[in-house]
Amino acid sequence: MSIIEAIIIGIIQGATEFLPISSSGHLVLLPEVFHMTNPDLTLIGLVHAGTLLAVLIYFRQDVWNIITAVLRGLSQRQPFTETDARLGWLIVVGSIPVGIVGLLFADFLEEIFSSPPTAAGFLLVTAVLLVVGERMLSGKKELAQMTWRDAVIVGLFQMVALLPGVSRSGSTIVGGLSRGLDRPTAARFSFLLGIPAILAAGLQAILEIFSANGRDFSTGVYVASFLAAAITGYACIHWLLTWVKKHTLYGFAVYVALFSLIFLALSFLGS
């Protein structure tokens, strides 16, 4: 893999992890479309680490406040008194569904990730979710008003995103909209909820790296891809949080639907 290809892979991961257009779908489909070298396990782990770094830096104050509030609540035996502590536990509760399903169906999920047409098909699911989410937009609930049921339901939406082509950020934003959150609040909770999921994906890739014994590409390729993912991810977080204040999600739905249909049409014509 060339440095240019590595940077492209990093940009794809950094942008599509946070924009509601599916990072898994794009990482499966774009290398297929442009005949790029498939990323190895090390590279996949590093681009996930890059997006994790981006979200931790962007929400560094939120993360610090949540961690300190949780620890303070535990030490005082009042774990849910402070808003930030309660938010931390809501993130934990919301992460449980994806963790359970990811462990139970790891082999099945790995198998369908090797099928570009399947990923393209599930992009249509993302498009439908985004349209439905916009249609459900009705509330103005803030993070401090979220309930345990809200966290579980948003977590169930995140669980669906284990399928290739289903956007994690898109599905969790829609989950938040379905529970009465407005777009900016739903997007913010989506990004915070994504921290454990992105961390788990990165750690899983790292464990597979050690079991695979070896790397396929040069150090420069890995560094370039990591930096591209981190920088692009940070920029896309900021852009999306600004965008959703005044714009709908319909544009993203149109994009993923067109991308899916064009890929499926080309696959059919080429078969």
Largest sheet: none
Distance between the termini: 27 Å
Helicity range: over 70%
The gyration radius over C-alpha positions equals 18 Å
Provide the low-confidence segments as ranges.
none
List keywords for this structure.
single chain; 271 residues; mainly alpha; 12 helices
Give an account of the 3D structure.
The chain has twelve helices and no strands. It has helices at residues 3-16, 23-33, 41-58, 60-75, 83-104, 106-112, 116-136, 148-160, 168-178, 183-212, 219-243, 250-270. It is globular, with a radius of gyration of 18 Å. It starts with a helix and ends with a helix.
Task: Give a quick precis of the structure.
The chain has 271 residues and is mainly α.
Lay out the secondary structure.
Layout: H1 3-16, H2 23-33, H3 41-58, H4 60-75, H5 83-104, H6 106-112, H7 116-136, H8 148-160, H9 168-178, H10 183-212, H11 219-243, H12 250-270
Helix pairs in contact: 1-2, 1-3, 1-11, 2-7, 3-10, 3-11, 4-5, 5-8, 5-10, 7-9, 7-12, 8-9, 9-10, 10-11
